[in-house]
Amino acid sequence: MELFPIHLLFIVVLMNRYILGPFLRRLKGKRFERVDDTYRPRVAIVVPLFNEGQGIYHTVRALLEQDYPRELLEIIVVDDCSRDDSVAWANKAAEGHPNVRVMSNPENMGKRKGINRGVRAAVDAEIIVSVDSDVVVDKGAVRQLIRRFVHPNVAAVGGRTFVTNRHQNWMTRMIEIKFHFAQQWLKDLERSFRQVMCLSGCLTAYRRHVLLQLEPILEARAIAGIPIKYGEDRFLTRQIVKHDYETVYTLDAFCFTAAPSTLAGYFSQQLRWRRSNLVDLLCGLSHAWRLHPVITVHYVSQLALLLAYPLVIVHNLLNGEFWDILAFHFLVIGLLGFIYRMETRHLPEDRRVPGASFLPMALLMPVTYALFTPLALLTLDSGSWETRGSPTTAPADSPTPAKLSTHSAGEGNPS
């Protein structure tokens, strides 16, 4: 296997993500992101909870400050049998706020089934906003999500995620740039055709009747008879698109979370995302042809790259040509680091990181693909929710929950 085919495939994916998408966004102008400020539905924010400790307190308190009519807003926390003091912190945050409910599952059910339980409980809501328990949501997020439901066929609207600990070390600086491209650029192509294929559970709004319609499919999700608890965000979004609804993404609704700061945390996250990507891309082939042709090409090219890339890396290693492909990685990653620096030069220093911080990705990318793609293929039937350990104590001035997330921004980010 020569380098050229994989380079060509890589270039096709890059052109789709970094050139065609932004071009269409600029071409469509104001039509790219229409809004309706007259739409004011009843909203229920559902927060699945597991072993979050004090972090859930910060999450709920931020949700209580939303710039949205209080009488139209309800917050439902669904605890999935946490083994720490998460429920106590959730109840503390709910004190004095009758629009906050804390529910406990009778057994550990997984994130998706916990959310479904919250959706069923929100009988008066028209829109469900899913928020992860380890994020702090901007006060304007709900309003920005709601105003994007401009047509009855828009079934879901997702928001973006910022890295709060971006300056902690080289890992978090690298992830900050990765998030920048994942959210500023990579979704532009899918946004152009209102067929965004993955909306993160960190912050996404759904029409409740669509979630109820899809609930049997979501509840029955399994591989080889084993219930699957990872990749819920990506699976749900794909099912929404499959049923001919539109999915939208906006940069104006956002939340904050901490990124993994160690290699162990990052690798754990990547393995989980790799399983999710493989399962979703493979299963989606059965109906990918129904997407817009441009999105179909993009979809299939991503799967082809995901499967071929590890083989090329191993091939180059065995033939002593690894340095060739590594040099190619450094060239592409270095160029992206320069683009990031140019795009963020107007931001205050505390809101950006040096463009060179992206360079470690040139080495981590082939390593994670070579190791985790085959490992993910061998563990697709994992039933794990990749649950958290015990929480740590957050600094007094930290604006985010105590825990460093290994799953946030979920499946919406590139691996």
UniProtKB/TrEMBL annotation:
Keywords: Cell membrane, Glycosyltransferase, Membrane, Transferase, Transmembrane, Transmembrane helix. Gene3D superfamilies: Spore Coat Polysaccharide Biosynthesis Protein SpsA, Chain A (3.90.550.10). Residues 403-415 have a biased composition (Polar residues). SUPFAM superfamilies: Nucleotide-diphospho-sugar transferases (SSF53448). Residues 387-415 are annotated as: Disordered. It comes from the Bacteria. Its main location: membrane. It is found in: Cell membrane. Residues 390-402 have a biased composition (Low complexity). The chain crosses the membrane at residues 6-24, 296-316, 322-340, 361-380. This is Glycosyltransferase.
